[in-house]
Amino acid sequence: MVKAPPDHTPMAVDSQESSSFESMMPITSPNQLPIHSMRKKIIQTVFTNDCCIFLGETGCGKTTQIPRFLYEAREKKFKSVLNKKPHRNKNLICCTQPRRVAAISVAERVASEVNQKCGQLVGYSVRFDEAVTRQTKIKYMTDGMLLREALLDPNLRQYSIIILDEAHERTLHTDLLFGIVKQALEYRKKSKKNPLHILVMSATMNVDLFSNYFNQAPVLYLQGRQYPIDVFHVQESQTDYIHASLITLFQIHRSKPLNEGILIFLTGQDEIDSTCKTIKHIVASGTESLEPILVLPLYANMTTMKQMLVFKQTPMNIRKVIVSTNIGETSITIPGIRHVIDCGCVKIKTFNPQTGLELLQVQKISQAQAWQRTGRAGRECPGACYRMYTEEEYEKLAPTPIPELLRCNLATAALQILAMGITNISNFDFVSKPDEKSIAAALRELIYLRAVQASNDNTYELTDDGRKMACFPLDPKLSRCLLASSDLGCLEEMLKLVSIMSVDTIFLTSSNINEKMKMQRQKFTMNEGDHLTLLNVYKTFIANKKTKEWCQMNKINRRNLLRACAIRKQLRRICVELQLNIKSCGTKFSSVRQALAHGLFMNVAEYFKENDYRTINDRHIVKIHPSSVLFGAKPSLVVFTELIQTTKRFIRDITVVEPEWLLESNPDYFKTRLSSK
Ligand code: CDP
Ligand code: MG
């Protein structure tokens, strides 16, 4: 059973009294934030050091205020010393974020704080989308974008200050950036005219690790959470965190004023959709007379318009409840949230270097993530966080998440490192070095993909194809699909397909799909599998002039499809630059499947028995996901885009392939594997 207050004693969370704050103010003017009192010190620390590290509790104002402080201070200095603005260098200040939604929403917030539109002084840049103009001086961007810029200019000369925010998340991109900016710093030190300053920020992180890595960089602690948060743990370990979360939710609902919003962290879309349904059902069932609840889901796989609903103010006579994945965990402020319920788990990708397969599964969060989640409750006024795990369980959590670099497929990273001219990956200056097995697995994959060739011991170089593949902001498997389709005369089709694969699902909520929707979707179904089905949707969308009506009628996510169109344009431009053979195969779709086989050859499964398939790579039993058009069809050999672990292991986004295509694409790899059938 979950025990909630008042039976609990809150765990102490240090806080700074903030009686002068008016609760629920829509926009907090910057000088009311605790960070403001440290402005001078912040500016001085950044400008007198090459690199420094700021640790400050969530909500103290790091992300929104510090870039502005630095910009304003620099402008003032230039005005007084030189009496003119710095022209020669671009002098941008960038602040990286691990997630798109954070980069965009923070940029919009800061732009509105300076009474400007986003894209003027303050802008953002995320993959396939940006709001940046010549006026832009403060640029919020995803870490992936800065990494791509580093490919073109490893010394990142257009930036005078680079802020790596949310460093504790240790995303693959941020981790690579640590190594890159460190190298750029060395280079830029030599040039007195255009010095570089690096700032690493987070609310929770291993300070020593970073300080040591950046040659004993000084650490500045930014005091003061904006509002106090009480933290409660369950008294007994819970086996069913959804059930526990629901009980806690209704305890709060019965006892707290309706204007206090609740944010629940769960792990994934299906879980969230079904929990939202349960909450609605309980309120509607009328077994107990409960006040109304407005339930809103929040996960990556939703239209931005729907996501933005959570930021809207709710009427006073209804309680706002948001059920979110970890995308609601960092950087964002959701108005009205006073209570956070944390299930303690997260769904993440892990990689097995032996098999080369990536797996999506639920795991425990780290203490740092627990505090990030807690922090969402105290953004606008005092709050409370209810953890669905005991205090002992909390103590046993890893202090920080395992860096993505240590648990993911390194192929993309390795390709980028090699493209920057570093021929021995092990020599790259990693904050935490991935193990040799993972590096070897990545190189093996890149060799199979014919992107890389070994030269001498431990040194590798890109092949001509590899250099081309590094130009695409894509997983090398998908870049290989593009190159293969250039050879096979179906690049037009593959460009569409890869673009759809780069956006979130184009079907409106794939789970909870009812019979009627299934019927509607059937008209797009291609018997050869999901990829061609997706391609079919894309083509029909274009043929129907991309209209809203058509999308509504067919339950298609228009926004995501429009984004896919924009992505296709950009990828096509790269193909033109690389002088690829941009042709359409008409209706000869087998060449599209063949090209898919060339890129996805490590994701192959063969029919085993009943409803089971076996992956060629590690001979693991998997099932076809019910959302696939091939569900129940039992083709003998398939390639898939995704492997997910729920109650069972499922493969998703699947296409039927012929064994000879696999053999011809990679004879060495399949010689032994396919014959063991
Ligand atoms: O980065 P950090 O967690 O230190 O805080 P921040 O993102 O800079 O936000 C500082 C404060 O600004 C938050 O605690 C909110 O009170 C406020 N804020 C807001 O009300 N709405 C936003 N969209 C962003 C920030
Ligand atoms: Mg922040």
UniProtKB/TrEMBL annotation:
Keywords: ATP-binding, Helicase, Hydrolase, Nucleotide-binding. One of its GO terms (molecular function) is hydrolase activity. InterPro entries: DEAD-box_helicase_OB_fold (IPR011709), DEAD/DEAH_box_helicase_dom (IPR011545), DNA/RNA_helicase_DEAH_CS (IPR002464), HA2_WH (IPR048333), Helicase-assoc_dom (IPR007502), Helicase_ATP-bd (IPR014001), Helicase_C-like (IPR001650), P-loop_NTPase (IPR027417). Its EC number is 3.6.4.13. Residues 245-421 form the Helicase C-terminal domain. It catalyses: ATP + H2O = ADP + phosphate + H(+). GO terms for cellular component: nucleolus. Residues 1-23 are annotated as: Disordered. It comes from the Eukaryota. Pfam families: DEAD, HA2_C, Helicase_C, OB_NTP_bind, WHD_HA2. The keyword GTP-binding does not apply. GO terms for biological process: positive regulation of transcription by RNA polymerase I. It is an enzyme of class 3 (hydrolase). Residues 43-223 form the Helicase ATP-binding domain. This is RNA helicase. It comes from Rotaria socialis.
